[in-house]
Structure formats: structure tokens, C-alpha cells
Amino acid sequence: MSLADARARAEAHSPFLRGLIRREGELLERMQAEGFDAALGAALARLDPARPFPSVREARGGVALTVALADLAGAWRLEQVTGALTDFADTALQFAIDAAFAEREQEPAGLVALALGKMGSFELNYSSDIDLIFLHDPEALPHRAGEDPTEAAVRLVRRVSSLLSERTGDGYALRVDLRLRPDPDSTPSSLPLGAAEHYYQSQALAWERSAFIRARAAAGDVAMGREFLKAISPFVWRRSLDYSALAEIRDVSHQIRDHFGEVEKLGPGFDLKRGRGGIRECEFYAQVHQMIFGGRDVALRRGATLDALAALASAGRIGADEAALLADAYRHFRTVEHRIQMLADQQTHAVPKQAAERAQVAGLMGLPNWRAVEATLAPRLKAVSKLYDRLLETGEGQRGARLPQQASEIEAWGARAKVKDGKLLATLVDGWRSGRPRSLRAPEALRAFETVIPGLVQQVGAGRTGREALLRLDQMIAALPSGVQFWRLLAAHPALAKVVGRLLTSTPLLADALAKRPSLLDVLLEPASPLPDYAHAEHELRALCRGLHGEALLDRVRIWTAERRFALGVQLIDGTVSPDAASRELALIAEAAVALLAEQVAAEFAVRHGTVPGGRLIPLALGRFGGGQLTTQSDLDLIFLFSGDYQAKSVGGTPLTASAWFNRLVPRVTAALTVPTAAGPLYEVDTRLRPSGADGLHAASLDSFVQYQRADAGVWEQMALTRARPIACTEEDRAGAQAAIDALVSAPRDAAHVKREAQEMRRHMAKHKPPAGPFDVKLMKGGLVDIEFIVAVRALTSGKPVPPGLEQAARLLAPELVAPARLMNAMLVMLRLVQPHDAAATPDSAAGALIARACGHAGMAALKADLADARATVTRLWAETFQGETK
Fold first, then answer.
1. Which of 305, 581, 692, 742 could form a disulfide with 801 if both were Cys (CB 3.0 to 4.6 A apart)?
2. What pTM, to 2 d.p., does this model score?
3. What is the pLDDT of residues 269-311, one digit of tens each?
4. How far apart are CA 219 and CA 134, in angstroms?
5. What is the pLDDT of residues 659-680, one digit of tens each?
6. Which CATH number fits domain 243-396: 2.30.40.10, 1.20.120.330, 1.40.20.10, 1.10.10.10?
7. Which overall architecture, per CATH, does domain 588-745 show?
8. In Å, what is the CA distance from 797 to each residue of 601, 715, 809, 879?
């Protein structure tokens, strides 16, 4: 549509725009000649510090007309319309703040306006109020002699509000709403920064958390405002799901529906914003999902509704169809809302009650009558309402049958549900209901628990290991530190309860982890996604730990690592990731943790002792860690080297020689990796493979390490070097260390001596550390250790470097070992997960079926046959490697 057509429509159907058109002839000529963007710039240029009251109102009139005509002409999309209106609000607000300071003959400082609501998300409509919270820094805010800083801030805010909101002969600029601050009836209109930070971190209500999803520093001391928002970010974006906050959002939804239910039917008086299926429900749908997932995924922290819906769909948190439906409805509702507001420049969202006004709205929409407008609204309102109803129903949980009260009735119920041990169940239920478990003492927790427990008991108690699973459930309930959030979340998401049931029946390791850290339940809400590479994992961890130090940093690394390991365990149980892929991902997680903690510990150490010129830490990963294949229970085998001259001295702080500097640093790094904190343990670290073993230095220079390997290292140390991999260091140091390792591994050596020493080591190991059970795939004859020995010996006697990965090295040196290595690694990963306390024992039937499936077999019989063939292959290749001698 042309500008002329848009103008004609505005003049015919909008009294407000008609008045502006009559006054803005020059601006209309600018639109015609140069376009809407130029006209918008001309309108904003009217702001004049010498005449603040009239100029801000004149600018507002020009902006309103320009944006409306661009909208009616179809030249601007919704985002451009709301963005232009918000940009004007930002500009006018900054203009008013500057003017208020100027009137006091002061330079602007120490006062910030936080925009919330639609202004915060760049979604203002034509007649929006602007929701603001003003904060001030008493130390930075200029104030007069004898004037309290808060009094000065209140006077400034009062003047800003007057400049924008007071009606004059030129109208008003913006209606300012300051009621979103804490307790607005008793608090000053500007809050001291420290008091505000304390409130939002310790006392704020759930609806305030939701409001701050769309908060931003809009004007004034914007840098100060951004720092404040960063400080309260953990309050807004909680990594652990706050079910109470979600319940409050749902309660607000019900209250809104009840309040506006009197005009439930689309027609005169229907509220497009708050009515069923309207704008607010589109916004709440996005915000509820943001509150669930945004604490863990920064990509979801979008203020604008359309941006949030797109991000949620992209991350797989909501369906693409849902996002498209909501986005289409939101755009259309906002467009109709704008046409309603164009009539008389009123802040309203209700369908006009007068037929003539409804006809005018239809005219502005380019439709013949209001009935045609209703035809576009009705299906969208119905679709959004249906979608939002499902969200509310999910949040309220499932009202199913409860377990009986009497022991005999519980036993009878258990028999009908095929629970293996009804007497045990009755005893356990009596204990749970007694209030003895901490997680069930709160009435709210017990109510939620009662809705969950029948299905959970039936799932875990009816399996082949029903008695053991019931006892495991009891142990989990006893170990939970609190239960309101946990049981409410399971009640709200029945699918999660089923996952918890699978963990209880499949793996005590994950069930125990969940009991100790219930927040891990949040991980189960996340859809399975492709496993990230190292760069992605490290970036994610660094983003989560940015700005943290000391205990807080150690806790955050442990929480992230536990969550990633737990998620992988669940994916292994569900069969959505292979054991091979999971073992590689577990190694990447460990490497990211080592890299971050080593860097942070070194930075803190440098504060006291400076830095060593040219010296940098080079951790060497060995064993399974070096090969990039860990299990959920693996230790980390590490050697710490450093680059540069070991005699160099540190610069800054109390100087140390390079050797002393790194040998004091490494125990601190090891402690950061091993010490249990409030968030639990991280890894066990084994550094006994360093030169001279446990009696040797904690760190050696790369040069001295090479010298030791050439002159003094035993065959077992040389074998360990075949799986060494530099990690968590610069590319320069990585390349230098890898070149040194390759040279050492490929150096000429006496093959017969290597084989004799290797055979003797394996005999010693078999005598003093025999297989712990029939499924000890590491230590059994023809098992993983034998594969590692064969590959290491062949590597040391081949005269060429090999990759540290066991399968990759085997592919070069003994291709027949690739399949056995892969099978046994898969079995080891699953055995350590499913039966962590006795991984070498024969699995029970349920665990065996799970392990067999993960290893690509129909059942345990097929898996055992494949394992026997693999062991035979390994035994044959051992004989070939060691010239016919077998163990």
C-alpha cells in the first residue's frame, strides 16, 4: 500500500491520526520525498533542551504519525513498528533525565532507569505506559548540600516523570509507571543500588523474577544498570528449576482468566491482551519455558516474545509448529491492538463497545466490517487458548489414584499392580508417610509425593529386581535433602517420573546422584541433543563460570560436570547415545574442567608469585584419559610438565624459580580437581606416572622430562607414553610436547627387552591383581589390558609415532584388535554405569539386557559369544606379538 492510501485510511478511520495529519504537513512532505526513516529522524530532531516540555511532545506527535503510516502502508513489520516506538521512548527518557539534571545544574551520573515490560523488550505499542524502575548510587549521584542522595534521586525522578507524562496543550509524551518497584506504596521512587540488589537477591517475588526476563538498562547511567542486572542474573535465571515460581505464574494466569472471564466471548469489550488465548498467554507461554530452561541455556534469554519463541523452537524446547502458531497469533493480535489504539491514542486493549468504533478498526485493518476482523481473530484465540490450557494442565500435575491407607490394602494394591514384595511396600509407605524422611516433612511435598508414588512404585516394584528397586527408592527418598521442588516437578511432569523409575531399576549410580543432588532432575527436562565437541563444551563451561572465583568456581565446575555426566548416563540408559560416543564425551568434559581450573588456579597463584616468562603449564593426559575414553567412574591419569627454562625466575610478587613455581602450582591444581566441596567431589587424580613416581617432583620441565625418558625411564613408563596427550595448553606448547612424545615413542629400542619387560609386568599384574569377576573386561585374559599391552609394545617397537587413542593406534598396528577394543570399551562403560560397585560381576537379567542392547546385541547370550570371540582374537595376537609365548 502506498503512503497516500495509508494516509487516506488513517484520515477516514482514526480521529487521532486525522488530527496529526492536519498539523504535520511538513513531516508528510518529508515522508513522501525521503521515506519513513528520514521522517522519523526529523521527528526525533525536534527534541530541544532549551524547551524540554513542548519539544518532547512535538517529537512524540511526529513519531506517532510516522510509525502509524509506515505500519498502515505495510512498509514496516511489527518488530520495526514496536522497535521505533521503543527507540523513541529510550531517546525521550534520556532527554528527560538530562534535562532534569541540567535544571539542577548537575552532570548526569549515578541514576539509571531500568525498562521492564514491553519497553524492556522493545515491544511498545502505540499508547503504552512505560514500566520503569529507577536506581541510584548514593556515592555517585550528585546532590546538594544537606540533601540526602535518595531525596535528590526522588526529585530527579519526579521531574523526569513530569516532563514525560504531564498533559499540556501539546498533549503528553509518555505515561510513566513506577509501580513495578518493590512495595511501591512505601518505597521511594528511586531505590539505592545496594538495597535493590539485596532485595532482588533475597526477598523478591516470583512475578518479579518473570518481569526481569524483559528488563534492560534503558537510560541514565546505563553501565551501572547493566552491572546491576548482571549481579541479579542468578535470581532471574536460576539453573535449578523453581517450581514455586512456575506455579505462581500459572496462578496469575488463572486470576487473569477469572477476572476477564466476564467478557469471555470475542466481541465488544473482549480484552485482546488479557483475554483467553490473547497476547498475555502468548507471552506467558514463552516466559514459562524461559524460566524452566533459561538458567541453563543463555541463548533462551531473549526479552522479545517473538525472539523468545524462535529461540525456544531452535533449542528444541517447544515444537516448531507451536512456535509458528504462537508467533502468527501474537503478530496478528498486536496488529489489531495497534489499530484499536490508533482510534483515540488510548492505552486500551479491549474491543470497542461502540459499533462505529469497531467499524473504524475494521477500516484500519483494510477489512469490510468487524465481523471480518473477528473471523481473523477467533481461530487464533482458540488455538492459543488450547495450547496454553495444555501448559496449565501439565503444570498442575495428574490427579490420579492414591495409595490406600491401611497396610493390608496396600499389600492388596501391590498384588494387583504386580509389585514383587507387597509386605515391603506397605512397610516403606508407612515410613514415608510418617514424616521421618526430610523430603516429605512439608505438607506440600507430601501432597505432591502422593500423586507421584503410585505410578513410581508400580514401575520399580514390578520388575525382575522389584525388591531391590523398592529399597533403592527408599534410599533415594531418605537421602533427598528437601522435597517440595522435587516432588512437585515429578507431579508436574509425569514423563520425568518414568525416567526416575528407569534409573532406579537400571543404575544405582544415577539414582544415588539424583538423591544427593535433586537439581539434576532439571537435566532430564532437556531434550537429547548431539554431543558437543571440545570447543563447545569448554565455551559452555567458561560462560557459566565467568566472574567466579574460589569456592564458587569450584562448585560451579563440579555442578556442570555432574550434570553433563548424569545426562550422558541417562542417554546411555535410554539408548540415545552409544557407549563409544559417551566415553569420548566424558573425556571432553574432564578436559574442559582441567583446562578451566588449571588456568584459574594459575591466575590466582600469579597474584602472589608473579608469572614465569616463557613458562606455561602442560598437563599430559595418560591412560584412558589420554586415549580420550573415560567411564562415569574413571580417575584422571595426569603428568604435569611446563615449558621454558626451569631455572628462570618469576616476575612480580614474591619471585620463585620456574621449577619451584610450577611445583607449588601443581598441588593446587590437583586439589582444585579433587577436593570435595559443598557441590560434591569432581575427580580422583593419579599422578604416579610422573618421573620417579610418587616420590618425584609434581612438575617437570619438558626438556628434563624428555631427558629422563631417554636415560632413565623404565619400559612401563615408555608404554604409558604411547597413550600420552597434551591437554589444556597453548597450541605452541601442545605441538612442542606432542613432537617430543612422538620422538620418544618412535626412538630405536631393543624390541626383545621391551617384550620381556612387558610380559613380566603382565604376569605380575595377573598374580597380584587378578580379574575380580567373570565380567572384568579390563583384567580378564584377552581383555582390555592385554589389548593395551599389545598396542603399546607394538608402538614402541615399530619405530613410528602412533595416536594415543586405543582404537586408532590398533588400526595402525593391529587392525584385528579394533573390534575387540570397541566391544570391551562399550561393556566397561555400561558395567561401570549399571553396576558400579561390582562391575566385574555377572549382570542380572535386566541389567544384562540393557548392557547387551547398548553393545548392539539382542541379548546376553549373543554378547557373551561375541566377547568370547573377541578374547580369542586378543589371545592369538598376544601370542603373535610375544613370539608365541602365552600367559
1. 742
2. 0.67
3. 999 998 989 999 999 899 888 888 888 888 999 999 999 999 9
4. 10
5. 999 999 999 999 999 999 988 8
6. 1.20.120.330
7. 2-Layer Sandwich (3.30)
8. 39, 11, 13, 16
